[in-house]
Each structure stands twice: as C-alpha cells, then as structure tokens.
C-alpha cells in the first residue's frame, strides 16, 4: 500500500491511515474518558507514524483539540502533522444549536487555532449544515479564511447531495466527510461519484462501523454500550454481518494482519477515498490500525471483500 498520499487536490500529504480523535477528551460522547489515556493515545499516533488528526469542537466541546494541541506543543511535532477539525455546534442553556454563519465560522476558526496551539489549520470542515445559512455562503467564509492563511483546505460534513452541490457551486470544496463503511455503502451511488468528478477527496467516517467490522464482537459478545441500540448491532442483521466479518480471517492470515486491517485496506482501495480515519480508544488500537499499511490487497481481493457486504 502507498505509504504517503495526497488528500484529493489539497496539497496535504499524509499517511493513508489517519486518526479519528472523537474519543480524545470526549467526556460529552463517551463514559469514563480518562484524559491520561487520551494523551497516551495521541502520543502513540505520533510514534506509530500516523500524521493526520481528525478532530472537532464537538469531541469533548473543545477538549479533543486542546489535548492534541498540548501533545503537539510538548513534542514539537506540529509541522509534522496535518490537522483537521470542524465546527458548527453552539452549546447553550436551552440545548445545542447549529450555526454556519460566516461570523460564527470565522470566530470558530480563531478559537480552534488557540485550542490547537497553532496558527493554521490544515483542513477545516463545516461539521453539519445548519439548515439556514446558504451552503455556498458558508463555504465562501471558509474561502476567505483560506486566503487569509488561517486554514489550508475546505471541508464539509454531513451535507445532503443537494446541499453539497450548492456548497461547491464555485468549486471551493476540497474534502467531503460523511458516514460510509462496507456495511453502509449507500454513498457509492451519488456522493462518491460526484466527489470523484469534482476532484474532491471523500473521507469516510466510521470506517470500522463503530467496531462492528473489527471481528471482536460475536453472537454471545455484542457491545454493551450505546451501540447495542443501533440497527446494525441488532437481530439477524447483526448475526449476518459478524458471520461475514469472521469469514475475512483467512484473508487476514494470508496478509499477516487483522480483520480490521483488511476492512480498512479495502476501504482505501475504493476510488475517491484517499485516507481513512479510524477512531481508537487506546494506544493499542492505534498501533493495531496502523498495521493496515502492511496489507497489500490485490484489486481482486478488494472487490471480493466489497462484494461480501453488498
Ligand atoms: P470507527 O472508526 O468505525 O470505530 C472506532 C471504534 O472501534 C473505536 O472507538 C473502538 O471502540 C473500536 N476500534 C478501533 N480500532 C479497533 C481495533 N483495532 N480493534 C478493535 N476495536 C477497535 O468509528 P468512529 O470512531 O465513530 O469514526 C471514526 C472517526 O470519524 C471519528 O473518530 C471521528 O474523527 C470521525 N467522525 C466524524 C463524524 C462527523 O460527523 N463528521 C461522525 C462520526 C465520526 P471500542 O474499543 O469501544 O469498540
């Protein structure tokens, strides 16, 4: 597998296995987050050779960005990595609000720069559409921030196909991040082909289907947390998927990697996808996911694995 890739046409070059930082300091999303484990996990990303961090304000309400910034400052490694982050959410006494207004995005970038202890963000995403601001106006604000040197590439996330087309009306969108994995390949129909046509890099989130595609869950050992409420973790659909996942063991053995590595390598074999950003709850999972770089799947193997889940 290629050891360095460019994210679309952004000029940003990274190792194709990035790091999804939604567990780092994310007290608002997961129970029992230990910030010392978060720090060790970020240090492990750096020592394992990954160099692409995917954070967001929503991951710990700024804490994920702060901890990444802290470790990069401590290790002096800022210039070795590519930092992506996102904003849209405002936490108020009456709940969470979404904002894509140019004023909000401009301020959000300034605050994220402080938390990350840097003077530029490599890739900044609008995390969710707010349903009010015209998407092209929101992206126009990011274009001005790019011209000002505060961000280097423009991303949008969780946009519908229609909203994406408006957001990219002037061709300014560099990256689209949306939910995609081998078990929910729906975006192969329209969004991924659109991204390929427009020279936009598509970054799938939840590439391991939140752990379902790692091979660690069994019929008698389903997850015990919020995941058990999700459709893919229930009933016959769950049993069918884990049987398919288990059937990848032979291919994993052939390449001397894990089932999770086969799934990530297959995802990287799909046209339009340059990088994956698996999440990890521990330094061990970071190291395990980096072994994907050792999995040199043939085109036929990629297609066989994809066909299994279709
Ligand atoms: P994921 O990558 O599909 O799954 C990650 C989870 O799988 C980990 O938290 C861990 O949970 C388990 N895991 C990871 N590596 C493993 C390994 N080698 N062996 C066994 N288990 C392993 O899903 P995700 O973390 O939700 O998504 C990835 C990233 O995408 C996020 O971190 C975030 O940066 C981004 N994201 C973006 C959005 C958006 O709206 N733009 C939404 C969701 C995610 P357990 O140990 O608890 O099983």
TrEMBL record:
Keywords: Oxidoreductase. PROSITE patterns: ALDOKETO_REDUCTASE_2 (PS00062). Transmembrane segments: none annotated. It holds the Pfam family Aldo_ket_red. Residues 16-308 form the NADP-dependent oxidoreductase domain. The keyword Oxidoreductase applies. The keyword Transit peptide does not apply. InterPro entries: AKR, AKR_Detox_Biosynth, Aldo/ket_reductase_CS, NAD(P)_OxRdtase_dom_sf, NADP_OxRdtase_dom. PANTHER family: NAD(P)-LINKED OXIDOREDUCTASE SUPERFAMILY PROTEIN, NADH-SPECIFIC METHYLGLYOXAL REDUCTASE-RELATED. This is Oxidoreductase.
């Amino acid at each position: 597998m290629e050891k360095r890739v460019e994210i679309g046409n952004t000029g940003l070059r990274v190792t194709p296995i990035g790091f999804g930082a939604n567990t780092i300091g994310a007290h608002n999303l997961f129970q029992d987050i230990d910030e010392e484990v978060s720090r060790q996990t970020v240090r492990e990303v750096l020592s394992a050779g990954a160099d692409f961090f995917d954070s967001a304000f929503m991951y710990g309400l700024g804490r994920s960005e702060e901890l990444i910034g802290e470790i990069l400052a401590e290790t002096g490694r800022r210039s070795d990595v590519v930092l992506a982050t996102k904003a849209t959410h405002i936490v108020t006494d009456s709940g969470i609000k979404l904002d894509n207004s140019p004023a909000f995005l401009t301020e959000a970038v300034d605050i994220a720069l402080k938390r990350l202890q840097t003077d530029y963000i490599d890739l900044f995403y609008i995390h969710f559409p707010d349903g009010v601001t015209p998407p092209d106006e929101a992206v126009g604000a990011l274009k001005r921030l790019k011209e000002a040197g505060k961000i280097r590439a423009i991303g949008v996330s969780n946009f519908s196909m229609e909203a994406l087309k408006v957001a990219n009306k002037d061709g300014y969108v560099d990256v689209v991040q949306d939910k995609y994995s081998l078990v929910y390949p729906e975006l192969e129909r329209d969004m991924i082909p659109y991204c390929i046509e427009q020279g936009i890099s598509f970054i799938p989130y939840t590439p391991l289907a939140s752990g379902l595609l790692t091979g660690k869950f069994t019929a008698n050992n389903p997850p015990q947390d919020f995941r058990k409420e999700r459709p893919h973790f229930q009933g016959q659909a769950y049993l069918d998927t884990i049987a398919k996942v288990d059937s990848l063991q032979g291919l994993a053995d052939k390449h001397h990697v894990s089932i999770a590595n086969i799934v990530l390598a297959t995802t990287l074999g799909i046209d339009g996808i340059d990088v994956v950003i698996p999440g990890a709850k521990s330094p061990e999972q970071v190291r395990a996911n980096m072994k994907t770089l050792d999995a040199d799947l043939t085109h036929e193997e990629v297609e066989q694995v994809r066909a299994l889940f279709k």
